[in-house]
Amino acid sequence: MTYDLDALCRAKAGDTYRSNITVELEVGPGALQEMLLYPIGEHQTVTSRPQNKHIVVAQTDESLGLRRRLLSLGSSVTVLQPQPLAAYIQKEARKIAEAYTEKLAAIPLSTLEQSGLQGIGNAS
C-alpha cells in the first residue's frame, strides 16, 4: 500500500484552524516590541493601557504558527479574544506549568536555593 504524504498532510495536518479572525491581546512591553516589528496580522492596532500594558488587535488566521508564537511570548501576552484561542493557550500554559512544577519538585531544595529558584513550584 502506498500513501500520498503531501495529500495526507494537506488533508489532515492543515496549519490553519480558523480563517480571518479578529485577535485581541493584552500585551506587556517585551512582547509589544516584537509585535510592532513583526505584526501578528492585517490592520494591527495598538492601544496603550495603564500599568505598561497595551491592547493589540489584528485580523489574522488562527494557525499553528500563531498559537506557537503566542505561547512563546509567555506571560507577556494574554489572549482576550477569540475565546476558543484563549482557551487553547490557557490549556497549553497549564500543561507547561504542570510539567515544570513536577520537575522542580524533584530537585533538592539546596540546589534550588543555589540557583535562585527557591519558592518556585512545590519545592519551597
Fold and architecture overview:
By secondary structure, the protein is of the alpha+beta class. The protein contains five helices and four strands; from the N terminus they run αβαββαβαα. A hairpin with a 3-residue loop joins β2 (42-49) and β3 (53-63). The longest helix has 23 residues, at 83-105. The protein starts with a helix and ends in a 9-residue tail after the last helix.
What summary fits the major beta sheet? 4 strands, antiparallel
Q: Beta-strand level of the residues, as a percent range?
A: 25-35%
Number of beta strands = 4
Shape: flat
**N-to-C series of helices and strands:** HEHEEHEHH
Main-sheet strand order equals 2-3-1-4
The share of residues in helices is 40-55%
Q: What is the arithmetic mean of pLDDT?
A: 83
Give the number of helices: 5
Give the distance, in angstroms, between the N- and C-terminal Cα atoms: 56 Å
Low-confidence stretches: none
- The structure class reads alpha+beta
Radius of gyration: 19 Å
Task: Give me a quick take on this structure.
With 124 residues, the protein is an alpha+beta fold. 45% of the residues lie in helices and 29% in strands.
